Amino acid sequence: MEQGLNLKLQQKLAMTQQLRQAIEILQLSAQELSDLIESEFLENPAVEFEEEYEDNSENETTYSFEEIKALAKYLDDDTSYSNAMINPDREEVNFESKSSLKPSLLETLELQVELSFVDPLQRKIAQYMIGCIDDNGYLKNPVEEFAAIFHQKRSYIEEVLEVIQTFEPDGVGARSLKECLTIQAKQQDLYHGIVQLLIDSYLSELGQQNYKAIAKQIHFSPSEVQQAAKIIQKFNPKPGLQFGSDQAEYITPDVIVRKINDEYVVIINDYGLAKLRISKSYENIADLDSETKKYIEGRVNAATWLMRSIEQRRNTLYRVMTAIVEQQKEFFDKGQKFMRPLLMKTIAEELEIHESTVSRTVANKYAQTPYGLIRLKNFFQANLGIHQEELIAGQIKDVMRDFIEHEDKKNPLSDQQICELLKEKEMKISRRTVMKYREQMGYPSSMKRKKY
């Protein structure tokens, strides 16, 4: 009886380890999966690679009806591989795409310009200006240059720049170190008192850390100067550098989404991914001694479970991506602005799987779309709920814009009132964030909007 319990315990432990491995494989990117397969090939003598042109009729991967139908459409379409060979000018699928692991500084600023400027001319000027911001995050061209190019007054250009200087990262768009630190201090409500005084007049002295000399000049104690200096030291003097250089690296998309005959087709990118199989030399182990047989059976079982987990990952990824395409059809038809609110829970309920499975499936993965390479998790960035992190800034701004455009001009809404109105729509953000968004959209304060 004790032996039976031990056997059950061993089986349960093995199953737990196998499930853990399946979960880990589900989360792997295409490159990570390729590395895992290569590692298994090197470490497990029971597996071998399938030869590309070998007759593998007994080991063929099975495809779902939907995948077969999609593949047929792909092969029938005039943009398929065979036609691409005839017409090399046609667009081909990039099985490896060049993209930064995170957006560049310019990409980040471009997105914020789209969200922040309603007026076409202001948006055009802003787009030109952010192109003149260097890798450190500083605007090197003088305002007069932009005024001459766009035939506008200096004050008009300054208004556009003031909005850009509210963008992330904090301090971007500054024309000097002093302005960069001032922007960051203002955004953190710290631009007053001794901090303001030090930034305005004593930056060079701060660099020498001569706190006693500064204290004598401004009539504060050395400890007060030192504490203020610590606050200033936390600001980033080169805010653009956190985005790194513009050097890009190649990312292998895990899935490819293409429009074929007015329908979107999801293709799992197996290109270049080696396929494993059990080595035929280990199929007959009947004549081996028990210890060797036990070892080989263990390696074969491990390889078999790995191959099943890889196939399960493939099937789950296909189902999840297909559901995402259905939910985000407007995005695929019209572009980034039409990304709709989407919860992982919605996909999970549709596919009758756990929400955590959806989360693991989209982790560390990219899709090649008609609009470029997109991280799968980005399809869920538009989730709406009662928490600030689940809101899209653009959607909040649309609601705020509606409030302001239809307010009583003689008694305009304050930032706090707008904040309360947003809460009624389950958009809970702080008054400070309301002020930031209002300024980004180019609306003045309620006092300046008031008409007498």
Automatic annotation (TrEMBL):
Gene behind this protein: rpoN
Domain of life, per lineage: Bacteria
InterPro entries on file: RNA_pol_sigma_54 (IPR000394), RNA_pol_sigma_54_core-bd (IPR007046), RNA_pol_sigma_54_DNA-bd (IPR007634), RpoN_core-bd_sf (IPR038709)
Pfam families assigned: Sigma54_AID, Sigma54_CBD, Sigma54_DBD
Signal peptide as annotated in the record: none
Membrane-traversing stretches: none
Domain RNA polymerase sigma factor 54 core-binding residue range list: 95-282
Name under which the protein is recorded: RNA polymerase factor sigma-54
Molecular function, one GO term: sigma factor activity
Gene3D superfamilies attached to this UniProt entry: Homeodomain-like, RNA polymerase sigma-54 factor, core-binding domain
Gene Ontology CC: one annotated term: DNA-directed RNA polymerase complex
Keyword Signal: no
PROSITE patterns referenced in this protein's UniProt entry, alphabetically: SIGMA54_1 (PS00717), SIGMA54_3 (PS50044)
High-level lineage: Bacteria, Bacillati, Bacillota, Negativicutes, Selenomonadales
Entry's family note: Belongs to the sigma-54 factor family.
Biological processes, Gene Ontology terms: DNA-templated transcription initiation
Keywords on record: DNA-binding, DNA-directed RNA polymerase, Nucleotidyltransferase, Sigma factor, Transcription, Transcription regulation, Transferase
Domain RNA polymerase sigma factor 54 DNA-binding: residue ranges: 294-451
